Amino acid sequence: xxxxxxxxxxxxxxxxxxxxxxxxxVAESSGSSPGRQGFKMIVARDDLTGSIxxxxxxxxxxxxxxxxxxxxxxxxxSEIVEQIxxxxxxxxxxxxCSGKQTVIFFQLVQSHLKTIRQIIRAxxxxxxxxxxxxxxxxxxxPSSVSSPQFLTPEGxxxxxxxxxxxxxxxxxxxxxxxxxxxKLFIIGGGHCALALSEIAAKMDFYITLFDDREDLNTLAKxxxxxxxxxxxxxxxxxxxISSGGDVYVVxxxxxxxxxxIVIRQLIDKNFKYFGVLGSRAKMKVLLKNLxxxxxxxxxLKNIHTPIGLPINSRTPPEIAVSIAAEIIKVKNSRN
Length: 335
Known about the structure:
five-stranded antiparallel beta sheet, elongated, five-stranded parallel beta sheet, Rossmann fold
């Protein structure tokens, strides 16, 4: 199950019992902070789920949330806590990894259950919605992220999936696009695709799997992909995949000629990541032939092949790990 969905379902179950819980959200982060923007944790009096970065900082903030709820010390709907990961800082988190993160505390009570159910429906149905948390509001809106008319936009992030602005110590607005922030298209539904789907399903990817074989055993076994599409021919693949800075494409078809068909259909599109599974020798010949035919050399150089980090992977699970690691490296790069 998607971790985000699991988190909100946990909150809904507790609120249905008329319990209150504390939502902790990383509103922004910088440097080597372990908690990245959008990380969340729900803290109940006897349990918790999710993470805002781990370590001693997370333990301390979770215990603070429990203490406030148990002792009736909560006097407001929300609170902002800045955590600086340096030992000498007055707002020291207890960690020394450098960087800092701003964490929102927002107490959820039964009156917020309707909004949480809206979040759950949006995640389950892959609807385009925005979660909005302010000093006194918690709601879901159909609008896109970024509300320029709110307060003084100090610290507004450049990530189009998030928005955070703060004015003074208590006034703030946090917005986040709900659901997966990245799209992973896997072309070819064999054993490596099955293994990669399982890994990617634990990350922030909406996974679409393609193959031209309707009765493929591994396609039937793949319960990790969000969508599975059987297409008549890989000649059609360009109709299903559009350019985008949030788009990752992995090609692992049955063989050389199908890889070439897919590359021809997608080479003019712009992706965050474009990788093709195949031996170094095979791919060298394929790309050289395409270059000789007139395909732009710079476009061909953007293809990651041999795919994955060089860790001498052999089995489908090992190959999937190497590909996932390379995708993570690209996803988290600053360029």
